[in-house]
Each structure stands twice: as C-alpha cells, then as structure tokens.
C-alpha cells in the first residue's frame, strides 16, 4: 500500500547533469532559438548604456552647456528696474545680443542669413568657444573682428584674415568657429553663428525698431550655491519683465528631459525587437519540447517525476537564456559606441562612452526573465507528458485540461510587458496605449492572416495542381508555425513599412511646399521706409513680388479682463510674443470656419480680429472673447470676430492673429517680402545687392532651408531605420529559427513524398508554395496595418493626405515574401540532397 | 508462489469523438513472481493498453491493479513513477534510448534516479553482459538496431526490477538479431530472477514463456500455460 512506497533521492546536481546531457545534440539549435532575443537585448543594453553615459556627461558638462552660473534672457527690451537687478547680480557679467542678420563675404561675393551674437565680456566662464586658431575667441572683442562658423567659411571659400560685411561695417575674420557652448551640430547647420564684439553693434545700424533681438546676460558667481534659490524667489518678477532664467541645474534637467524622449523612443524600438524575440522564444521552445516528447516519456517510464522533468528543461532554458543575454549584453555594449555616431548631430555634449554596469545588469536580467518567462508555458507542459507516450501516442491529450499554473504564467507575461513598457513610458496612459496598440496589432495580424487564409482556401481552384493544394494545405498541418511566423514577420513588416511611409509623408510635405510656383526666398525686417526701394530692386532683377505683408510684434495683456497673473491656467497665452499682421482680405491659404471676416474698420470702431482656430483652442479663446493686446506699449482692445483654418504648409507668411486694416498702420512694424528666384546664380547676385543696400534686411533662401530640412529628416530617418533594423533582423532570425525547428516535420513528409516518387523539384515547389503563402499572408497583413496606421497618422497627426506609393509598397511586399521563400526552401534543400533511406533511418 | 501483479476487474474506456470506446473490459489475472508471461492478440486487441496499466503508465477506468502489493490506482503520477523506478523495467519495440545520452549513460539513468552508489561500474558490467562494453561511449544513433535493443536490455535490468515489461521487443529487428536479443533477454531474466511480461504478436516468442494470455476485443479469450516453456 502507499505507506510502503519506495523513496527517491534525486539530487539537484543530477538534474543539472541531466540537463547538460539532454542538451548535447541540440545546443546549436537552442542557441539559434535564443538568438531571437540577442538583438533585442543588445538594442536595449546599447540604449541604456548610451542613456547612462549621456546623463553622466550632461551632469559633468552642464556648466559648459550654459557657460555661466546664471543666464537671463529676454526678447523684450530691458527696463530700468530690470537693469538695476542685472547690475546687482553675479561677480562677473557678460552681455550678448542675438539676432538674425545677413552676412556678406567680400572675397566670394556670397551672402547668407546667420545668427549674429554680439558679445561683451568674458563669456563663457565654463567651457570655451572653440575656434581655429584656438586663441581667437579670447581676442576677437579687442578689435573690429569676428568669429565665423566653420561650415559657412567653407561654403563661401573664405579663410581667416578675410573680411565680411555685417550691416554697415566691415569685420576681419579672426577665427573660424568650431563650436559655441551648448550648441549641437544640427543647430549650427540650420543657423550658423557669427560672433562680433557688442561695442560695434550700434555702428552696424542693424538694430532698428521692431528688430527681433534676444538680450542675454551671463553671470558668474564665486559661490553659485544660491543661484537656483534666487531664481525661484524672483520667478514672478522675471516673468513680468519678460525674462527667462537658466541655471546650470535647470539646463541639466532640461537637456536630460529632451533626451529622455529620444531615449524612450530608442528603448521602445529595442523593446519591439525584444517582443518579437519573445514570440520567437515561446514558439521555439514549444517545438523543442514537442521534439523531446518521446525522451521525456521514456524518462517518466524509468521513474522520473514530473517536477524533475520540468526542472531539467527549466535549467536548460535558464542557462541558454543566460548565454543569450550575455551575447546580447556584449553586442549591445559594442553597439553603444555606434549610437553617439548615429546621434552626434543632435547631441549638445561630448559623449565619453564607458561600459555601464547597470545597463549590463539590466540586460542580463531582462534576457533571463524573457527566456524563462516566455518558455514557461511550453516548459510547464512537460509536467503533463504521460509516460504512455513511450509506447504509443496517448489517446487523451494531456495538455487540453485547464492548468492554473499555465494561466498564471500568461498573466505574468502580460504583467511583464505592461511593467516593462511602464518603465520606459513613465505614465500609465502611455503605457496602456502602447501595450494595447501592440496587443491590437498582434490580434489584427492574427485575424488578418486567418482571413487571408480563408480567402485563399475559398478562391484556390479545386482543380489547381497537387503542388499548389499541398503547399497551401501545409499551412494548416498540426503543430504548424503559421501563426507565430505570421505574427513575427507581420509585425516586422508593419514596423518597417510604417516608418517608411511616415518618412515619405513628411518628405512629401516638404517637397510639396517647394513646388515650382511657390516662393523660394523670403526677406524679413524690411523697414517701412525701405519697402518701396526693395520692391524696385526686386523688380529690377525681374523677380515677382509674391507676398508682401506687414508684421507687428505684440503681446497679450488681458483675455476677457483677466491678466496673466489672474489667469494661471492659461499662462502660455501671455508668455510669448506674437507676430501679427493686418490685411483687408483673406489669402488663398486662409478659410473662415466660424464667425465673420471683417477686413477693414474705421477709427473708434470695435476691432474684430481673426484667429487661427488651432491657436484659439490653445489659448482657450472663442468667438466674441475680448483680448487686450500690448503693441509695444500701446494697449489695443479687440474682439475675436472670426476663426480661420490656415494651411500652414503653404510656403507663404501665415499668421495666428490677423487684424483688419485701419488699426495698426502706424504701429512700429517691419515688412516681409517673398519672391521666387529661378536659379542659385541669380539668387546669390540678388542677395548680395540686398545686403549691400539694405544691411538690416534678412534674406532666407528657402531652397537652402529645404535642403537642410531634407538633411535633418535624412538623419532622423537614419536613426529610426537603425533602431528598426534590430526588429527587422530579429524578425528574420525568428523566421529562420522557426523554419529550422519545424524542419523535422517537413523532413518526414518530404522523404515520404520522395519515397512515393516525388521529384526533388516537386518537393521544393511544394515547400516554396507553402512559404510563399506564409510570407504573402504575413507581409500582406503587416502592410495592410501599416497603410491603415500611416493613413491615420497622416490624417490626424500630420494633417496631410496619404496615398501609399505603389512601387515601394510592392517592393516591400515582395522582398519580405522572397526572404521567407528563400529561407524556407534552403532549409529543405539540404535534406533532399541525401538518399531517403539514410534520412528515414536517422529520423526513425 | 507469491503473486507480483494482481489485475482485478480492470476496464479501460476512452472517450473518442463523443462516444465511449471500451478498449479493455473486465480483465482479471494474477502473475506470480519469477514467472514469464506473454500477452498476445491481434492489432487493436488492447494488449499494449493492458501493459501500460500493469506497469502503472496509465490509470484503469475501473478495477484495481496491484503491483508488489501496491494499489496503483490510488497513487498519483509521481508516486507511480517512484514505483516504476523501484520495481519495474521496460523494453520497448522502438528501443526508446535517450538520443542525447551515450549507451553507458542510458544504462545509468534508472540507477541515478534511484540515487544508487557505484553506478558506473554496475552499468559497465551490464553492458559487458550484453556484449557492448566497447560501445559504451557511443550514442544511440551510432548503434545498429540490435545493438540499441541490447543497450535497452541492459538499461531494463540495471535497477534489478521485480518485473520487466517488454513491448514487442523484436518488432523492429530482423530474424537473426531477434533471436540473439531474445536469448539475451531470457538469459538475463534467469540470472536476475525477474518476472517477465512480454507483449507480442510473435507466437514463437510467446511460446517460450511459461504462460500465454490471449486477448481479443478487449477481453481475455484464453489464459494457458505454455507446453514447452
């Protein structure tokens, strides 16, 4: 009776030994399974290491980012009271006036809009303005000399010692500017910087009424410990004076914050690769255990308990997972050195790459958790394998019964995905949105692939050849990989195609704007007195006057009688300067969506203004709301008379706030003129004339801007593709391992077919047809979802039309199908090159 | 003589396509320790199912199976595994050697499961008995069918089982090899004094046992002592 049941003393060591022995013939296969997660782990370790290094470097170089202990800046003028405050701050002080202006290169005759920085004082106090020669930064304020951005000097074939014209004055170039404090590569290519001594600014005559100047004051403190507290205390006062304060701490936070988003994106891209890998691990272990069924049943016959059988395979998976995670960590640590190269144009600090042990630890842990967790559903089924399988396949399917442990594992898997996403996203709303989207994508892929399968089943003619029928029927065979492969290939296709489409949408918006009838040159800061003469100059070059508008700078003082201090929920409305215009009729880019457009008013009539409807939403204003504007000291009460829909993508000056004619004509203002220059030669000549005759007028060559935008989008696209590449390669590895794991089943069938007289060609055709359907369903489903997603993004986020480009879409589809077919067929070929008997004996 | 296996009113009923399929119906017999018994019958008669129940690989739907005085139906799967490891040996038609283990390791497994000492020497001794000492480090795939079955014999006897179940032990072997394996099986059985239960189609092999139980359609149609055993 059970009371004299024999005892078993199985040591833990024996379980390890058995796990080792059992893995002998399958190690390479297990490694292939787990290689599914190597790239995902590598991507995450690279991103985490990069994040750690970046944060460390931001912390270490924060002082160099600001260049001072405190920076105060304002676009408004400096009041007397504020000047008093400024004079009382810091142990040392520098002043800088930053504004956009044209620079003219005497030797080459070229000109370009640049960011002028007129500096006085010893700024930067931390870090340096990097120049060639190195001492130029410390001497340029001594004479009428300037530092000019190095790319600009290359562009205009200028060298140190040459002269440039800035406004009415000529400056000698003392040095070429390599890097200004806190500046990254992208910023300098968009707006190249030129430093000049502040004492000469006035004589350049560049500063006129209405000029947009940013006043910056840099302070150095012997003891900077109280700076942040001072800023906090004076926050309201500074805001009232229109000043922003920047300290080392706040810059550290701000820079870290902006890169958090980048890191979050990178980590999520890596995570998607990892999720694909999880699917791969789950399915690979499922097939692995299926193949082990007979061995496990034999061991059970010989007296192995179910939990010990489970532990043997758990130990195997644990160690293979550890190896995979280690590989991933090593690879990721290597890849992290590539990330700064990929992102270098966006980085404000010098990155010093080091091994981040916390990233290494996280990678190892993550690899282990994923390997074990996603293998567990299959591993748990080991407990249910009946010893009866050793003598015959069991009649009753043991796995069909409800197993609470397996369900617990499913819950854990879901919790892991949600938890890990939360670690990246930080907010639950984003976490749920991401995980639900991934879940929906999974679900839709499954539904779509099933639907496609159903359709083919219905549409495939009954009279079609045996090869087609057999190839298609293979997708439905027991223990097939159809679902797993569809999800992994489909998800990779979805991810890659969506990125591709979105990039296309963004690019088409840019190219649309630069169409042949659109203006490609803008002139800013035209003073009222210069307007007529600039018009004539433009006409003398036979260039069209395409868009001429006045621009008036103002601020909102009150909304419905409430001042900024009383309207705390709507600070944004009061904070920024607004550039408005006045016009008597609407332009082609504007459409009234609510209210009535009033184009002209008489003196003392109510001023009905028109707002861009999105802007009105942002500042919580509707029709008939009252807004009091401060137009450079003069208060003008207005009423919102209409809301407009503005097509911002049209290359013309558009305004959020439009006044009717008859109000602002006498206010301080400048004009903007747009024209179209047919070629770069004429463009250079015209710009040269404008700069010589009207030094204060800024000319923007839109072709150049578009080219730069193109370059930036290319760089961003490269970063995205770099990360998407992990998902793509992982998807392929999952595909290869899945094909190889289901090879056994195909082997038996293929050999049987050969025994019955099928030719090698016929068997290869059957396999190719099967993989063709598989690839087509997965890629088709992925592409359908990508097109749907891109359409939604285009409509709701980018406000653009989206028509999938036919050829690239087809190209994507057939590339995926081709990769699947080639991989599948190659795996069968090796079997068919051997005599059937040899394989039957080996497999039997 | 002491009985080692008592089968009382044993039935096995499967649910198949929504209806009940009775594979064994009210089987009764007792096997005495040290005897040799053949269970024969045509394909689908239920003989392998009966072997599975006798060896504790499966549970009977009705009735009791007592092995060495232990009622197997009262035990859970792990307890039955312990019983198998202690008292039962197996020989399978398709050998069922673990493909990732060498011949020696295959023979060692039942002893290791038991936590026995001096395992390697015992296993080598058994391999010598079956004439495969020089192939001890070969994997199953490197052995012929006959050699694989001989390793299987060594493994079956390694834990000195009280009862050994052989399921069509020569089913996958040619006549000459079959004869060698059968001779070895009976010789070892004699040496170890094990009870031997063979499930087979082969009437010649059945005739070499002391008793033959014939099954057809899930019921015993004859239970006779062999004439020249």
Quick recap of the structure?
The complex is a heterodimer of chains A (844) and B (229). By secondary structure, chain A is α+β, with helices and mostly antiparallel strands.
Describe this structure in words.
- The complex is a heterodimer of chains A (844) and B (229).
- Chain A is of the alpha+beta class and 844 residues long.
- Chain A has 26 helices and 21 strands.
- Among the domains of chain A are: 191 residues, no CATH class; 181 residues, no CATH class.
- Helix content of chain A is 55%, strand content 16%.
- The longest helix of chain A has 54 residues.
- The relative contact order of chain A is 0.11.
- With 229 residues, chain B is of the alpha/beta class.
- In chain B, helix 3 crosses helix 4, helix 3 runs parallel beside helix 5 and helix 5 packs parallel to helix 6.
- Chain B is globular, with a radius of gyration of 17 Å.
- The interface between A and B is large, with 41 and 47 residues.
Descriptive terms for the model:
heterodimer, A: about 850 residues, alpha+beta, six-stranded mixed barrel, six-stranded mixed beta barrel, elongated, B: about 230 residues, alpha/beta, Rossmann fold, six-stranded mixed sheet, 7 helices, 10 strands
């Amino acid at each position: 009776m059970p009371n004299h049941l024999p005892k078993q003393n199985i040591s833990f060591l024996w379980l390890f030994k058995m796990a080792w022995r059992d893995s002998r013939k399958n190690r390479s296969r297990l490694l292939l399974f787990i290689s599914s997660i190597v790239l995902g782990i590598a991507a995450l370790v690279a991103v985490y290491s990069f994040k750690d290094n970046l944060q460390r470097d931001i912390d270490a170089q924060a002082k160099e980012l600001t260049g001072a202990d405190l920076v105060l800046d304002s676009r408004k003028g400096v009041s007397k009271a504020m000047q008093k405050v400024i004079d009382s701050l810091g142990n040392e002080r520098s002043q800088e006036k930053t504004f956009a202006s044209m620079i003219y290169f005497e030797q080459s005759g070229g000109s370009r809009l640049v960011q002028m920085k007129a500096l006085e004082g010893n700024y930067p106090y931390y870090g340096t303005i990097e120049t060639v020669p190195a001492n130029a930064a410390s001497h340029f304020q001594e004479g009428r000399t300037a530092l000019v951005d190095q790319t600009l000097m290359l562009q205009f074939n200028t060298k140190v010692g040459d002269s440039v014209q800035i406004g009415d004055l000529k400056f000698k170039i003392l040095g070429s500017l390599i890097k200004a404090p806190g500046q990254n590569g992208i910023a300098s290519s968009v707006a190249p910087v030129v430093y000049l001594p502040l004492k000469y600014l006035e004589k350049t005559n560049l500063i006129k009424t209405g000029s947009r100047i940013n006043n910056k004051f840099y302070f150095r403190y012997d003891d900077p410990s109280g700076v942040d507290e001072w800023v906090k205390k004076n926050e309201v006062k500074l805001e009232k004076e229109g000043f922003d304060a920047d300290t080392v701490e706040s810059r550290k936070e701000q820079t870290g914050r902006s890169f958090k988003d980048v890191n979050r994106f990178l980590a999520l891209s890596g995570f998607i690769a990892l999720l694909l890998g999880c699917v791969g691990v789950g399915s690979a272990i499922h097939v692995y255990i299926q193949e082990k069924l007979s061995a496990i049943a034999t061991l059970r016959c010989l007296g192995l308990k179910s939990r010990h059988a489970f532990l043997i395979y758990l130990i195997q998976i644990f160690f293979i997972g550890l190896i995979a995670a280690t590989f991933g960590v090593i690879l990721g640590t290597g890849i992290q050195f590539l990330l700064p190269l990929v992102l270098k144009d966006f980085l404000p600090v010098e990155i010093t790459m080091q091994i981040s042990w916390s990233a290494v630890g996280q990678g190892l842990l993550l690899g282990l958790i994923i390997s074990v967790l996603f293998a567990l559903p299959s591993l748990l089924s080991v407990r249910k394998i009946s010893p009866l399988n050793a003598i015959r396949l069991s009649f009753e399917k043991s796995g069909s019964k409800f197993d609470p442990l397996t369900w617990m594992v499913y819950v854990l898997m879901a919790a892991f995905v949600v938890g890990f996403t939360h670690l990246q996203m930080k907010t639950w709303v984003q976490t749920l949105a991401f995980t639900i989207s991934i879940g929906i994508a999974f679900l839709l892929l499954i539904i779509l692939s099933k639907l496609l399968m159903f359709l083919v089943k219905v549409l495939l003619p009954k009279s079609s050849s045996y090869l087609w029928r057999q190839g298609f029927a293979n997708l439905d065979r027991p223990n097939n990989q159809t679902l797993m492969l569809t999800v992994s290939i489909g998800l990779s296709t979805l991810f890659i195609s969506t990125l591709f489409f979105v990039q296309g949408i963004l690019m088409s918006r840019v190219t649309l704007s630069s169409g042949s009838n659109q203006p490609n040159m803008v002139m800013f800061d035209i003073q009222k007195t210069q307007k007529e003469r600039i018009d004539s100059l433009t006409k003398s070059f036979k260039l069209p006057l395409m868009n001429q508008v006045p621009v008036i700078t103002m601020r909102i003082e009150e909304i419905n009688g409430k001042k900024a201090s009383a309207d705390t929920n709507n600070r944004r409305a009061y904070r920024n300067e607004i550039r408005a215009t006045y016009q008597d009729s609407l332009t082609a880019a504007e459409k009234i969506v609510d209210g009535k457009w009033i184009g002209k008013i008489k003196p003392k009539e109510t001023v009905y203004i028109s707002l861009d409807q999105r802007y009105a939403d942002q500042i919580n204003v509707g029709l008939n709301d009252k807004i009091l504007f401060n137009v450079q000291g003069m208060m003008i009460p207005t009423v919102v008379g209409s809301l407009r829909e503005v097509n911002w993508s049209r290359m013309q000056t558009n305004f959020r706030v439009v006044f009717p004619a008859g109000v602002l004509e006498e206010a301080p203002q400048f004009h903007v003129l747009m024209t179209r220059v047919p070629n770069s030669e004429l463009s250079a000549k015209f710009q040269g004339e404008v700069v010589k005759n009207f030094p204060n007028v800024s000319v923007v060559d839109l072709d150049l801007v578009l080219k730069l935008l193109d370059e930036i989008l290319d760089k961003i696209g490269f970063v995205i593709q770099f990360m998407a590449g992990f998902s793509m390669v992982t998807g392929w590895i999952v595909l290869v391992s899945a094909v190889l794991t289901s090879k056994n089943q195909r082997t038996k069938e293929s050999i049987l077919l050969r025994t019955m007289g099928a030719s090698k060609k016929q068997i290869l055709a059957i396999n190719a047809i099967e993989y063709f359907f598989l690839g087509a369903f997965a890629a088709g489903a992925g592409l359908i979802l990508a097109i749907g997603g891109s359409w939604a993004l285009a409509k709701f986020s980018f406000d653009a039309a989206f028509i999938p480009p036919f050829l690239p879409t087809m190209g994507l589809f057939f590339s995926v199908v081709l990769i699947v077919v080639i991989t599948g067929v190659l795996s069968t070929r090796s079997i068919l090159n051997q005599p059937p008997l040899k394989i039957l004996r080996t497999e039997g | 003589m002491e009985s080692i296996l008592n089968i009382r009113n044993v039935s096995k009923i499967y649910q198949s396509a929504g209806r009940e399929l009775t594979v064994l119906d009210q089987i009764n017999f007792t096997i005495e320790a040290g005897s040799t018994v053949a269970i024969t019958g045509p394909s689908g008669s239920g003989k392998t199912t009966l072997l599975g129940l006798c060896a504790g690989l499966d549970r009977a739907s009705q009735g009791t199976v007592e092995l060495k005085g232990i009622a197997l139906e009262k035990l859970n799967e792990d307890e039955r595994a312990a019983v198998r490891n202690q008292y039962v040996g197996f020989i399978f038609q398709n050998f069922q050697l673990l493909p990732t283990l060498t011949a020696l390791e295959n023979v060692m497994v039942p002893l290791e499961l038991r936590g026995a000492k001096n395992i390697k020497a015992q296993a080598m001794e058994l391999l010598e008995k079956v004439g495969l000492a020089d192939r001890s480090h070969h994997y199953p795939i490197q052995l012929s069918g006959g050699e694989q079955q001989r390793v299987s014999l060594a493994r079956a006897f390694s834990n000195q089982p009280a009862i050994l179940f052989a399921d069509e032990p020569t089913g996958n072997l040619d006549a000459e090899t079959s004869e060698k394996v059968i001779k070895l099986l009976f010789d070892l059985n004699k040496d170890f004094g094990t009870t031997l239960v063979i499930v087979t189609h082969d009437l010649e092999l059945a005739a070499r046992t002391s008793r033959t139980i014939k099954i057809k359609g899930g019921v015993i149609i004859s239970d006779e002592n062999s004439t020249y055993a």
